[in-house]
Design brief:
6-stranded mixed β-sheet; 0% helix; 225 residues; rod-shaped; mainly beta
Length: 225
Amino acid sequence: WITSNITSGESIYIYANSSDENINTVWVSINGTTQTNLTMTNSSATEFNITWTASAPGNYQLKVYANDTIGNLNNSMDWTSFTISSPNATSQNETAPSSALPFHVIKVTTQLNATDPLRDTYAYLNTPSGFTFLSNYSQNKALGNFTYNQTKTATWFISVPITEATYSINVTYTDYYSNTWNSSNMAVQVSSSATGSAYLASVAGSPEVVTQTDYYVESYFTSSG
């Protein structure tokens, strides 16, 4: 028999009762897209079990085999069917500036809350062309394994394009078994006046200079910065 309500990436147990005066090996064969054979260990004289990480979502079958010390073989006769479902996870708390100056650096953060365990999870920030990722902030960020009801945060620092426009960015999460989850879209407006100030500065100085004396000017950003 096998753990019920199985989700992809979850560690589950498979059990079997097998008895013989000279029992040697007990193993379970799992049929899915490929066949996997797992040797079981005994927890008592007749009960055996194995821990297995459930693979990709789909329909599977299992059968238990056993042999004795001189090679006699037997099995559980019928294949037992079971189903692996997709794990539940939700993207939340997506944050990015609504506006930015051309070529400026912005910070983007998102969170993934996993109701079920996840294995080898990555967060990939989808951006249009022109965005540049800073060193140590890979576009595909490793989040690792998740336990039940665990939340992890992904952070990126990226330079926005020089071309002024409104861009849409979002995050795609994937795990080892190709399960995917998507975040909401985040809009970032790139504009030279996006933050209420411009690049231009006014500079005022004397129209004449005197040799061998310091010359001073005063400059102000156009929005009184």
